[in-house]
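subagent[fold] <- orchestrator: predict structure for attached chain, return tokens only, no commentary.
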Amino acid sequence: MTPPKRFRPFRLLRQDVQSLLQRYKSDWTVFNQLIVASAVYIFFTNLLPGITFASDLYVLTGQSWGTIEIQFLPFMAWSLIHAGWMHILLAIVNAHDWTMCYVTTFSTEIFSLLNSIIYFHKAIQELQRAHEGLSFAAFLYSIIGAIGTMLVAIFLSTAENWKPLFHRYLRMGLSEYAAAISIVIFIALPHVGELKQLDRENLQVSTTFRPTSPDRSMFIVKFWHLNIKWIFAAIIPGLIITVLFFFDHEVSCIICTTSRYGTKKPAGFAWDIALLGCTTALCGILGIPPANGLLPQAPLHSESLLHNEKEETRSSVQIDEEPEVRVVRRIYEQRWSSFLHAGAILVFVAPPFQRLLGLTPTSVLAGLFMYMGEQSLSTNPVLYRFFHILTPPSELQPLPSKIQGYWPIHGYTAAQISATILIFVITLTKGAPAFPVVIIALVPIRLLFMKKLWNRETLRYVDSWACRAGTPEDDEDRVAETEKRARPEEGLMTRDGTMTG
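subagent[fold] -> orchestrator:
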């Protein structure tokens, strides 16, 4: 993708719809045990955090927000309605083209690292609540349960490397269902032996399928009763929501479709944003949490679908030449995992299944958050460059000749970590709604100012465009070369230094 040369409304939407129609049937032709395992994993990583975030909102908003729904004021409903049409407008004007084409991995790696930190911070918050509401012995078990949930999941996720131990299919099952197995074990463990005597704190769930507030008899918010001036005032929070959702969704999609995942089918950024706008507006009307209001799970979803695939390549066009077979990592591009986990979440909205979820200790949720944080962090290049800072120079890999040592790269890594910490601190303050603006500001900072502090070759080595091949430095070189070729020669230089026409 390159920056657009002229403005053509609906171009990306038409392109996405055509692509969707062409690939839709093939999206349903791939189905196997890894896809089912991925659906189970994403079911837990979406539903359990969703319940705990709803519980937070229930407390922080004076018991107006609940597990099933949110008691939105008509003002909040209008905020989401405004956010809805703003999303659709962004899709119509091809916002992806003229925003994300300038984003580099400098920003996406920071965003991914921020999500990892938030996962770990959420785990700590859950344990803090356990400390406040439980006896000391129960609190100590909560710590054991949280760390145990994470460690067992991590341990089981490596089962495919246990060869020759166990049958291959057993190792595959343990690896693919690692998080689910760990969660079930530590949900059941408090009901065994003397642990039954400990007090515990479980997830707060709804026992009826109705609005949380007793003042409401239906989910529809009477948004049409709001005064006209407040309808227009709701544009401001609607704009904030739009900026957050747009950047969150775009960067998440970029991260989960990087070369690491070997995706072949085209993405549908504009279609996704338009659909997100429709669901956001619908959530406002129904008075339920906006669909994109939690931490992005798309990168974890892609990670859970990774598998080895054999690929044949030929070095020449000779027919009798034996093709070279190599193993590549790629994800299954299909719709089944999303359909299955969404369907399971819909089933568990029913009160009987809500009660089943209510058996989950909050310590297990804290462990799940830590596992999600570890999974997200383990694939982030910032982590490995941070390890390079701690590694003696003699043990590091040689760098290209144009880069003078690792110190500039260490400085780049330190800048990313510092920026992430700054943004995380902002999310803990009253200025939290502004944090997407800070992330967006990283884009011009990278393109305009960082080249004054870092050598071009260093930036070329550590950074690249997020949505297209190459680096900003490669583009600058091409522009300079084009201008050089286009510049007319003013004359030829003679031996005595004079110019001839």
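orchestrator: received. Logging for downstream: Residues 337 and 478 are 42 Å apart (CA to CA). The chain has a mean pLDDT of 85.
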